[in-house]
Amino acid sequence: MSKKILIIDDEINLLELLRVNLETAGFNVITAADGEDGLKMIFDENPDLVILDIYLPGIDGCDLCHKIKNDPRTKHIPVIFLTAATQKEDIRKAIDAGGDLFLPKPFDPLKLVEIAEKILIPENLNPNNKYRILVIDDEISTAELLEVNLKSAGYKVEAAFDGEKALELIERGKFDLIILDIMIPKIDGYEICRRLRKKDTTMLTPIIVLSAKNKPVDKIAGLKLGADEYVTKPFDVEELITRIDSILKRTGHILSANPLTELPGNISIMQDVNRRLKNKETFAFVYLDIDNFKAYNDKYGFEKGDDVIKSTAGIIKQCVSGDDFIGHIGGDDFILICAAGKVEIICRDIVDLFDKKIPQFYDIKDRERGFIVEKDRRGQSQQFPLMTLSIGITTNESEDMDHYGKIVEAATEMKKYAKLKEKKKSFFVKDKRK
């Protein structure tokens, strides 16, 4: 069933234009020309999204939004404000009423279609949902405007209103992009930018400077300190989000080891380990390798091999929680970083699910006999069992595990032990050394 959108606007021509564009995109569109009719339709029609003007006959848009967001039957419905009002007090009033996005007129109707699609895509299907953005600005209305618009675009967003709080948030967690004002209290934007570029964990994090300082010398100073973009206020929210999309797409390709899985690669893995070490977290570092993958790839082809890689990534994702980190270092090698106390439970779930699903990738004959015949690296025919996982686990519980290189080396050694074991099932080995 197509998603239902309610548009409330007293500009009849605009109402019709939006209806046609949204219906062409496959949405079911209903309309109202004033706030009272709009409120009635919200309860009668139960729309998935409401688009409304601030200034409406009868009940104005902010009052209507407040009613929507304070009624348990409708508070889940996203609300987009669509208006020519661009004063800060109007924006603040719309945000305070609970609006999810503020889009100023005039605008491209196709842009509204794109925004509606992003809002109505389920969270787990929205490609932006994997990205975390930090907004640093002491102008609360600007920070809130960015926050609601970025969240509506699918991003995970946090905000800080001074430099000290910003650095505290950055120390606690990884952000994929930082939007930074120059003139902020306690620690200014230039100093924050300088510090971030000196740290291993943030030296590659994209930074967009957002500032009222518009002289060439200010822009040059920001870019010299390592900012990726310098945007002057006032700014266009749509244009800024387009820039963010472009930057994250570009850096995502750099940091992802394999476009098949879209999982972060070596740089991000190192950054995550270093962050956890700095925060004195106790964690497990897990190295996962698929046994007999090359033989499978040789017999069934690269396309089927790619399916195995994607399925393995999916299996790992199913077995972890939001605080865990999954990386892909290339080929059939994966990395998992999680709390030390739960690592064995997670690995047991992974091997059970892998061994259950992997036989489906073989034809019936190979599956029943439990092996395939392929040439080994010396060109000799050999029997290769069905694919399994070899998993090596280490933790930083030992005092000498205080460096990324040592942790990787220990996990690699454990993985080799697991690989040496003759087995018909997946297997993991944990480093017990203290």
Task: Describe how the helices and strands are arranged.
Blueprint (H helix, E strand, L loop, with lengths): L3 E5 L3 H13 L3 E5 L2 H11 L3 E4 L8 H9 L9 E5 L4 H9 L4 E4 L4 H12 L11 E5 L3 H13 L3 E5 L2 H10 L4 E4 L8 H10 L8 E5 L4 H9 L4 E4 L4 H19 E3 L4 E2 L1 H13 L4 E9 L1 H8 L1 H18 L5 E6 L2 E7 L3 H15 L6 H6 L1 E5 L5 E5 L2 E8 L8 H17 L6 E4 L4
Parallel strand pairs: 1-2, 1-3, 3-4, 4-5, 6-7, 6-8, 8-9, 9-10, 18-19
Antiparallel strand pairs: 11-12, 13-15, 13-18, 14-15, 16-17
Helix pairs in contact: 1-5, 2-3, 4-6, 12-13, 13-14
pLDDT averaged over residues: 86
* Strand neighbour order, sheet with most strands: 2-1-3-4-5
Helix content: 40-55%
The proportion of residues in beta strands is 15-25%
Low-confidence stretches: none
| Envelope shape | globular
CATH class descriptor of the largest domain: Alpha Beta
Quaternary organization = single chain
- Count of domain modules: 3
Describe the protein:
The strands form five sheets. A five-stranded parallel beta sheet has the order 2-1-3-4-5, sandwiched between helices. It has a five-stranded parallel beta sheet with strand order 7-6-8-9-10, sandwiched between helices. It folds into three domains: 4-120, 3-Layer(aba) Sandwich (Rossmann fold); 126-256, Rossmann fold, CATH 3.40.50.2300; 259-430, Alpha-Beta Plaits (2-Layer Sandwich), CATH 3.30.70. Strand 11 (256-258) and strand 12 (263-264) form a beta hairpin. It is α/β, with parallel strands linked by helices and 434 residues long. It has 16 helices and 19 strands.
